[in-house]
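User: C-alpha coordinates in, sequence out, please.
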Protein backbone atom coordinates (compact mmCIF):
# COMPACT_ATOMS: atom_id res chain seq x y z
CA UNK A 1 0.00 0.00 0.00
CA UNK A 2 1.22 3.51 -0.74
CA UNK A 3 1.96 5.42 2.44
CA UNK A 4 4.45 8.08 1.42
CA UNK A 5 3.65 11.51 2.80
CA UNK A 6 2.85 13.87 1.32
CA UNK A 7 1.37 11.98 -1.60
CA UNK A 8 -0.02 13.68 -4.70
CA UNK A 9 -1.69 12.40 -7.87
CA UNK A 10 1.23 13.59 -10.00
CA UNK A 11 3.81 11.89 -7.81
CA UNK A 12 2.03 8.55 -7.80
CA UNK A 13 1.31 8.72 -11.51
CA UNK A 14 4.99 9.16 -12.25
CA UNK A 15 5.78 6.16 -10.07
CA UNK A 16 3.29 3.91 -11.85
CA UNK A 17 3.33 5.02 -15.47
CA UNK A 18 5.82 3.04 -17.55
CA UNK A 19 8.27 5.06 -19.64
CA UNK A 20 6.81 3.77 -22.89
CA UNK A 21 3.22 4.76 -21.98
CA UNK A 22 3.45 8.16 -23.67
CA UNK A 23 4.86 6.70 -26.89
CA UNK A 24 2.24 4.02 -27.55
CA UNK A 25 0.97 4.40 -31.12
CA UNK A 26 -2.71 5.04 -31.75
CA UNK A 27 -3.07 1.79 -33.68
CA UNK A 28 -1.55 -0.23 -30.86
CA UNK A 29 -3.74 1.53 -28.28
CA UNK A 30 -6.83 0.83 -30.41
CA UNK A 31 -5.92 -2.86 -30.53
CA UNK A 32 -5.38 -2.93 -26.77
CA UNK A 33 -8.72 -1.19 -26.14
CA UNK A 34 -10.47 -3.71 -28.41
CA UNK A 35 -8.77 -6.61 -26.66
CA UNK A 36 -9.68 -5.16 -23.24
CA UNK A 37 -13.33 -4.94 -24.26
CA UNK A 38 -13.32 -8.49 -25.65
CA UNK A 39 -11.80 -9.81 -22.42
CA UNK A 40 -14.39 -7.87 -20.39
CA UNK A 41 -17.30 -9.43 -22.30
CA UNK A 42 -15.92 -12.99 -22.24
CA UNK A 43 -14.89 -13.00 -18.58
CA UNK A 44 -17.96 -11.14 -17.28
CA UNK A 45 -20.32 -13.34 -19.29
CA UNK A 46 -18.67 -16.55 -18.11
CA UNK A 47 -18.55 -15.34 -14.51
CA UNK A 48 -22.27 -14.51 -14.49
CA UNK A 49 -23.12 -18.00 -15.74
CA UNK A 50 -20.82 -19.76 -13.28
CA UNK A 51 -21.85 -17.58 -10.35
CA UNK A 52 -25.60 -17.72 -11.03
CA UNK A 53 -26.36 -19.98 -8.00
CA UNK A 54 -24.37 -17.66 -5.71
CA UNK A 55 -26.07 -14.59 -7.18
CA UNK A 56 -29.48 -16.14 -6.55
CA UNK A 57 -28.51 -17.06 -2.98
CA UNK A 58 -27.28 -13.56 -2.15
CA UNK A 59 -30.33 -11.94 -3.77
CA UNK A 60 -32.60 -14.17 -1.69
CA UNK A 61 -30.75 -13.34 1.53
CA UNK A 62 -31.07 -9.60 0.91
CA UNK A 63 -34.76 -9.88 -0.02
CA UNK A 64 -35.61 -11.89 3.10
CA UNK A 65 -34.29 -9.06 5.29
CA UNK A 66 -37.00 -6.52 4.42
CA UNK A 67 -38.86 -7.89 1.39
CA UNK A 68 -37.45 -5.10 -0.81
CA UNK A 69 -35.52 -5.29 -4.06
CA UNK A 70 -32.10 -6.93 -3.57
CA UNK A 71 -30.54 -4.89 -6.38
CA UNK A 72 -29.60 -1.26 -5.91
CA UNK A 73 -28.96 1.02 -8.88
CA UNK A 74 -26.74 3.95 -7.92
CA UNK A 75 -26.04 6.89 -10.23
CA UNK A 76 -22.27 6.97 -10.84
CA UNK A 77 -19.99 8.64 -13.35
CA UNK A 78 -18.26 6.58 -16.01
CA UNK A 79 -15.92 7.28 -18.88
CA UNK A 80 -15.68 10.98 -19.74
CA UNK A 81 -18.02 11.73 -16.85
CA UNK A 82 -21.08 10.09 -18.41
CA UNK A 83 -23.60 8.97 -15.73
CA UNK A 84 -24.80 5.37 -15.54
CA UNK A 85 -26.69 3.13 -13.14
CA UNK A 86 -24.07 1.18 -11.19
CA UNK A 87 -25.58 -2.10 -9.97
CA UNK A 88 -24.93 -3.60 -6.55
CA UNK A 89 -26.61 -5.94 -4.15
CA UNK A 90 -28.37 -3.64 -1.71
CA UNK A 91 -26.43 -3.35 1.53
CA UNK A 92 -28.35 -0.42 3.05
CA UNK A 93 -31.76 0.23 4.53
CA UNK A 94 -34.40 1.52 2.15
CA UNK A 95 -34.44 5.09 3.55
CA UNK A 96 -30.65 5.28 3.49
CA UNK A 97 -30.23 9.00 2.75
CA UNK A 98 -32.56 10.03 5.56
CA UNK A 99 -30.72 7.74 7.98
CA UNK A 100 -27.37 9.20 6.90
CA UNK A 101 -28.54 12.80 7.26
CA UNK A 102 -29.88 12.20 10.76
CA UNK A 103 -26.70 10.40 11.81
CA UNK A 104 -24.41 13.17 10.55
CA UNK A 105 -26.43 15.87 12.30
CA UNK A 106 -26.24 13.97 15.60
CA UNK A 107 -22.55 13.01 15.28
CA UNK A 108 -20.05 15.79 14.46
CA UNK A 109 -17.19 13.26 14.33
CA UNK A 110 -19.06 11.23 11.72
CA UNK A 111 -19.73 14.42 9.75
CA UNK A 112 -16.00 15.22 9.76
CA UNK A 113 -15.15 11.68 8.61
CA UNK A 114 -17.76 11.88 5.84
CA UNK A 115 -16.46 15.25 4.67
CA UNK A 116 -12.89 13.90 4.57
CA UNK A 117 -13.40 10.49 2.95
CA UNK A 118 -17.03 10.23 1.79
CA UNK A 119 -17.16 7.01 3.85
CA UNK A 120 -18.03 6.09 7.44
CA UNK A 121 -16.36 3.54 9.69
CA UNK A 122 -19.69 2.91 11.41
CA UNK A 123 -22.37 3.52 8.81
CA UNK A 124 -25.93 3.47 10.23
CA UNK A 125 -27.35 2.81 6.77
CA UNK A 126 -25.73 -0.63 6.38
CA UNK A 127 -27.81 -3.71 7.19
CA UNK A 128 -26.53 -6.84 8.93
CA UNK A 129 -26.37 -8.84 5.68
CA UNK A 130 -24.97 -5.74 4.01
CA UNK A 131 -21.94 -5.73 6.32
CA UNK A 132 -21.20 -9.31 5.31
CA UNK A 133 -21.59 -8.54 1.61
CA UNK A 134 -19.29 -5.52 1.86
CA UNK A 135 -16.70 -7.40 3.87
CA UNK A 136 -16.56 -10.14 1.23
CA UNK A 137 -17.10 -7.77 -1.75
CA UNK A 138 -20.06 -9.91 -2.85
CA UNK A 139 -22.15 -6.75 -3.17
CA UNK A 140 -20.08 -5.82 -6.24
CA UNK A 141 -21.01 -8.91 -8.29
CA UNK A 142 -23.98 -7.32 -10.16
CA UNK A 143 -21.47 -4.92 -11.70
CA UNK A 144 -20.58 -7.76 -14.05
CA UNK A 145 -23.81 -6.76 -15.82
CA UNK A 146 -22.47 -3.21 -16.08
CA UNK A 147 -19.34 -4.67 -17.68
CA UNK A 148 -21.40 -6.50 -20.30
CA UNK A 149 -23.34 -3.31 -21.02
CA UNK A 150 -20.11 -1.38 -21.53
CA UNK A 151 -20.68 0.98 -18.58
CA UNK A 152 -17.65 -0.45 -16.81
CA UNK A 153 -14.58 -2.59 -17.35
CA UNK A 154 -13.26 -5.40 -15.18
CA UNK A 155 -10.32 -3.14 -14.24
CA UNK A 156 -10.35 0.63 -14.01
CA UNK A 157 -10.72 3.65 -11.70
CA UNK A 158 -13.41 3.66 -9.02
CA UNK A 159 -16.83 4.76 -10.28
CA UNK A 160 -17.69 7.88 -8.29
CA UNK A 161 -20.75 10.02 -7.55
CA UNK A 162 -21.19 13.57 -8.81
CA UNK A 163 -20.40 15.01 -5.36
CA UNK A 164 -16.87 13.57 -5.54
CA UNK A 165 -15.87 15.31 -8.77
CA UNK A 166 -14.61 18.38 -6.92
CA UNK A 167 -12.28 16.15 -4.87
CA UNK A 168 -10.57 15.05 -8.10
CA UNK A 169 -10.04 18.60 -9.30
CA UNK A 170 -7.99 18.90 -12.48
CA UNK A 171 -7.25 15.15 -12.34
CA UNK A 172 -10.88 14.22 -13.12
CA UNK A 173 -10.71 14.29 -16.97
CA UNK A 174 -7.55 12.15 -17.02
CA UNK A 175 -8.84 9.68 -14.42
CA UNK A 176 -12.05 9.12 -16.37
CA UNK A 177 -10.56 8.98 -19.83
CA UNK A 178 -11.01 5.21 -19.34
CA UNK A 179 -14.05 3.22 -18.12
CA UNK A 180 -14.37 2.69 -14.35
CA UNK A 181 -13.68 -0.81 -13.11
CA UNK A 182 -15.14 -3.50 -10.87
CA UNK A 183 -11.64 -3.71 -9.43
CA UNK A 184 -8.60 -1.52 -9.85
CA UNK A 185 -5.36 -0.20 -8.46
CA UNK A 186 -7.10 1.29 -5.43
CA UNK A 187 -8.84 -1.97 -4.53
CA UNK A 188 -5.55 -3.90 -4.42
CA UNK A 189 -3.71 -1.10 -2.59
CA UNK A 190 -5.63 -1.01 0.67
CA UNK A 191 -9.13 0.22 -0.28
CA UNK A 192 -10.59 1.94 2.81
CA UNK A 193 -7.17 2.01 4.48
CA UNK A 194 -6.03 4.64 1.98
CA UNK A 195 -6.69 8.37 2.17
CA UNK A 196 -8.91 10.06 -0.39
CA UNK A 197 -5.88 11.78 -1.94
CA UNK A 198 -4.23 8.38 -2.37
CA UNK A 199 -7.34 7.01 -4.07
CA UNK A 200 -7.32 9.86 -6.58
CA UNK A 201 -3.61 9.39 -7.16
CA UNK A 202 -4.06 5.67 -7.76
CA UNK A 203 -6.93 6.25 -10.18
CA UNK A 204 -4.85 8.78 -12.08
CA UNK A 205 -1.86 6.46 -12.16
CA UNK A 206 -3.96 3.64 -13.61
CA UNK A 207 -5.62 5.79 -16.26
CA UNK A 208 -2.32 7.31 -17.34
CA UNK A 209 -0.52 4.03 -17.85
CA UNK A 210 -2.95 1.15 -18.18
CA UNK A 211 -2.10 -1.90 -20.26
CA UNK A 212 -3.46 -5.42 -20.68
CA UNK A 213 -0.49 -6.76 -18.72
CA UNK A 214 -1.19 -4.37 -15.86
CA UNK A 215 -4.89 -5.30 -15.91
CA UNK A 216 -3.94 -8.96 -15.55
CA UNK A 217 -1.67 -8.17 -12.60
CA UNK A 218 -4.46 -6.23 -10.88
CA UNK A 219 -6.98 -9.04 -11.49
CA UNK A 220 -4.57 -11.57 -9.97
CA UNK A 221 -3.91 -9.29 -6.98
CA UNK A 222 -7.66 -8.79 -6.48
CA UNK A 223 -8.14 -12.41 -5.39
CA UNK A 224 -5.97 -12.27 -2.23
CA UNK A 225 -7.17 -8.73 -1.53
CA UNK A 226 -10.79 -9.92 -1.47
CA UNK A 227 -10.20 -13.15 0.44
CA UNK A 228 -7.89 -11.37 2.87
CA UNK A 229 -10.58 -8.66 3.26
CA UNK A 230 -7.78 -6.08 3.20
CA UNK A 231 -9.11 -2.56 3.66
CA UNK A 232 -12.76 -3.63 3.40
CA UNK A 233 -15.58 -2.11 5.44
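Assistant: Sequence out:
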Amino acid sequence: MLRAAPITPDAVALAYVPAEATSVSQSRRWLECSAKRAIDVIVAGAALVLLLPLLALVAGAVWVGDRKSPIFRHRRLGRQGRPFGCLKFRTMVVEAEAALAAHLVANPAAQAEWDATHKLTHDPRVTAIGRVLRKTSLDELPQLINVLRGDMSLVGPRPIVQAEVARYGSAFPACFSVPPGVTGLWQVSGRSDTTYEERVALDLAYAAGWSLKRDLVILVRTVPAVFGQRGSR
